[in-house]
Amino acid sequence: MTTTAKHDARFATMTFSSVYPHYITKVEKKGRTKEELHQLIEWLTGFDDEKIQKLIEEKVTFETFFEKAKLNPNAPLITGMICGYRIEEIETPLTKQVRYLDKLVDELAKGRKMEKILRKG
């Protein structure tokens, strides 16, 4: 399966604040915490709790969210399937970045140990 510029366009207009509550629900339903979610967001993007809250309040799009992020150099180590796509084969940059975040949230919800989620390289 290949992604297209249409995927990026869809993510570009979607707000982080509209998806964030779903991330919280997903991880808490599986016994994980908001703090752990924030830890993985910070690992991927460099955003601390205060910055995450500010971006939510500003209702930034995923495009702006990832433009402001300093993506972890180990992010390409995030591989596998998410939503029917193999992450390492996604060619459109924004779609790949959003799927990195989705994959980390999935791993957290599935009970994976935090040291495994936060790839060290």
From TrEMBL:
Concerning Gene3D superfamilies, the annotation shows:
uncharacterized protein sp1917 domain
Per its UniProt entry, which superkingdom is the organism in? Answer: Bacteria
**A Pfam family reported for this protein in Swiss-Prot or TrEMBL:** DUF2200
Name of the protein described by the UniProt record: DUF2200 domain-containing protein
